[in-house]
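Tutorial, part two.
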Amino acid sequence: MSESRVELNGREPGIAELAALAQINYGHFTSMRVEQGGIRGFGLHLKRLQDATRELFGCELGDGRIRQCLRRVSAERAASVRVTVFSRYFDRKHPERVVDVDILVTWRSLASQAAGPIRVQSINQPRRHAHIKHVGTFELFHALRQARQAGFDDALFTTATGEICEGSTWNIGFWDGQTVVWPNGPCLPGVTRQLLDAGLRRAGMQTRSESISLASLDRFQSAFALNSGAIGPMISSIDRHAFDCNAAVLEEFGSIYRQQPVESI
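Running the prediction step on this input gives:
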């Protein structure tokens, strides 16, 4: 198999067919890691796609159709797969109408993960419609660009009161030495975060969700990022507040995550 592949509704797309997605930029997606012919948290990814399709387009998206499209591009080796749902029939003059949807699947070889800790800059800008993994990514990459220009590695969204939400394209978790604490500011409930939380609980470790403000970071030893099947990297600082980057903590969490079962496509 080549290093990348794109299919629309189970076939090679024409350029004109992708114009609706490029020009209107209305839709949603999920990103997954295919490993051993399956996906960890696949049921959660399916639910995410189905719920967002119902909310954005007013129609139902059967999991059989998603599975069929994914099976065509699945590979035995590990790969990154993104499923984007949009509609060539979406009418911006009548956005309230129910329309059928299209499924765009992109497959690519896994990129190497950055090993080092990252420094992040808080930005007073919670993501709009945070519960949906939508394709409107302008604010995400603009925030990332601003953070890089300021000398940081990435951006962390907060509310106007300083409540922590999520990173530019990732969730964040905190460790106080006994408990993993998830911020409950507006954010996308990441599949990786949900799987790790379940795994931690099964392993007898404590987790909880609560409001975490920038002013209360002193009570945590460590902070870490999670995204699309990746636990880490560690976060070395948020603004001027520094954290302990204990690699053993991240290794333990990564081991617990990898124990979660791979679901067949």
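The chain has two domains: 4-109, 118-260. In part three we will examine how such features are distributed along the chain.
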